[in-house]
Amino acid sequence: MEKTLKVINRMEADGVIGRYAIGGAVAAIFYIEPFTTYDLDIFFAADVSGDLVVLTPIYEYLARKGYEAEGEAVNVEGWPVQFLPAYNPLVAEALKQAVEIKFKRTPTRVMSAEHLVAIMLQTGRTKDYARAAKFLEEDVVDVERLEDILSRHELSGKWREFSRRFKP
């Protein structure tokens, strides 16, 4: 994954994507016990033209470097990478407040545990609820900070529903 992150860092430096952070299942692995995942979700700040985000420059840039699209992802140094624009205020905040880390010797950013859980609750899939429960079981979430995020993004109802089902 380090080679993949180096390519993504170069994309950011070259202005192909704005600020980025790792989200989704790979981000979760930085906080909780590893599990199988098949792609790397890269959330990025994008210039929006109306309500449309055009991903063509990303695919063209990567194609010029020899990386090929595979369905919804691009294979970058052996990792299928999905490029996802920050599509709502919660994801934009998660991107802005992402944690700076190093993967081996390569700098990158990962969404905070609290933002990941909030996004999981917002998405509301069964697998997201199960993963959110794992975050709480492994005590990697500052619940007070999570509740603040949920409140600001009008997700307190989802938190109550989740808490009844999964009893964190």
Keywords:
single chain, 168 residues, alpha+beta, Beta Polymerase, domain 2, two-stranded antiparallel ribbon, 8 helices, 47% helix, globular
Please tell me about this protein's structure.
With 168 residues, the chain is of the alpha+beta class. It is built from eight helices and seven strands. The strands form two sheets. It has a five-stranded mixed sheet with strand order 1-2-5-4-3. Helix 4 runs antiparallel to helix 5 and helix 5 (113-123) packs antiparallel against helix 6 (126-137). It is globular and about 50 Å long. The mean pLDDT is 93.
Order of helices and strands: HEHEHEEEHEEHHHH
The value of Rg in angstroms is: 16 Å
Rounded average pLDDT = 93
Largest sheet entry: 5 strands, mixed
Residue ranges: pLDDT <50 for 5 or more in a row? none
How would you classify the helix and strand content by structural class? alpha+beta
Under CATH at level 1, the class of the largest domain stands as Alpha Beta
